[in-house]
Amino acid sequence: MTLEAIDVHHGYGTETVFEGVSLSVSPGEVVAIIGPSGVGKSTLLRLLALFDAPNRGSIEYENQAVWDVSEQRRLEYRRRIGMVFQEASLFDASVRRNAEYGLRVRRSWTDRLRHELSSLVGKTNGTGDAIDALETVGLREQADQDASSLSGGEAQRVAFARALAYEPDILLLDEPTSDLDPRNTAVIEDAILEARRRGIGVVIATHDMHQAERIADRVAVLLGNDIIEVGNTETVFENPTDERTRKFIEGELIY
Ligand SMILES: Nc1ncnc2c1ncn2[C@@H]1O[C@H](COP(=O)(O)OP(=O)(O)OP(=O)(O)O)[C@@H](O)[C@H]1O
């Protein structure tokens, strides 16, 4: 269940964002992508989320090039990947309905049918996964509250619960805590570690290097047009092989 970008080149129009980027994520690991603003962290996540095809290179899921298969098959892969954006987009309904939303949309119709049938015969109340996910982000008590009454930090926690609820293989997080206070940030970070414990592979783009240091198993440094270094978190922070990594981490590289 490894998701991998292999020698990917991408850009917009005539603008090159990156050239020859490779990165993988495996079950039960947290990979952080760090790099200055505008370097292409979101672009890389969008490619890993299979939203866009890279201009060159390949994105592989379980060693299968995802842009070489049928659209139907690619959709199946898409359903196994969850994504949380910088800003939560919730709709006007209860917290529980919002957390369940991913379950309804992302499940294949066969899964959905099976799930509906089990809830009909009383094997599940149909919302167990969503409630469990809300518990993980500390919002179980608020399940019946209207989502519009939540603070920004709580809304982001619901967005995270939504992604967690349908048990993706891979979770992609684009600066999920950049607008949050320390308490909400800590809740999300704990939930990320819980996702890892459940065997989910997590990729998080963050400009908060301390966050990368706190939660990541591996760190990829995106600078210029390339990932200049990727490795074990401690090594990247304490003993980087690339001098630019050290400068970036110490704030000496100004972009
Ligand atoms: N849809 C698009 N069309 C044209 N250019 C784009 C598009 N999306 C991103 N870009 C450009 O590609 C480059 C990389 O953007 P991206 O959002 O991936 O960077 P980032 O590292 O995530 O930045 P930030 O940390 O500020 O969110 C930027 O120069 C941006 O302006």
TrEMBL record:
<dbReference type="GO" id="GO:0016020">
    <property type="term" value="C:membrane"/>
</dbReference>
<keyword id="KW-0813">Transport</keyword>
<keyword id="KW-0067">ATP-binding</keyword>
<dbReference type="Pfam" id="PF00005">
    <property type="entry name" value="ABC_tran"/>
</dbReference>
<protein>
    <submittedName>
        <fullName>ATP-binding cassette domain-containing protein</fullName>
    </submittedName>
</protein>
<keyword id="KW-0472">Membrane</keyword>
<keyword id="KW-1003">Cell membrane</keyword>
<dbReference type="GO" id="GO:0016887">
    <property type="term" value="F:ATP hydrolysis activity"/>
</dbReference>
<dbReference type="GO" id="GO:0005315">
    <property type="term" value="F:phosphate transmembrane transporter activity"/>
</dbReference>
<dbReference type="InterPro" id="IPR005670">
    <property type="entry name" value="PstB-like"/>
</dbReference>
<dbReference type="GO" id="GO:0035435">
    <property type="term" value="P:phosphate ion transmembrane transport"/>
</dbReference>
<dbReference type="InterPro" id="IPR017871">
    <property type="entry name" value="ABC_transporter-like_CS"/>
</dbReference>
<feature type="domain" description="ABC transporter">
    <location>
        <begin position="3"/>
        <end position="249"/>
    </location>
</feature>
<dbReference type="GO" id="GO:0005524">
    <property type="term" value="F:ATP binding"/>
</dbReference>
<dbReference type="InterPro" id="IPR003593">
    <property type="entry name" value="AAA+_ATPase"/>
</dbReference>
<dbReference type="InterPro" id="IPR027417">
    <property type="entry name" value="P-loop_NTPase"/>
</dbReference>
<keyword id="KW-0547">Nucleotide-binding</keyword>
<dbReference type="InterPro" id="IPR003439">
    <property type="entry name" value="ABC_transporter-like_ATP-bd"/>
</dbReference>
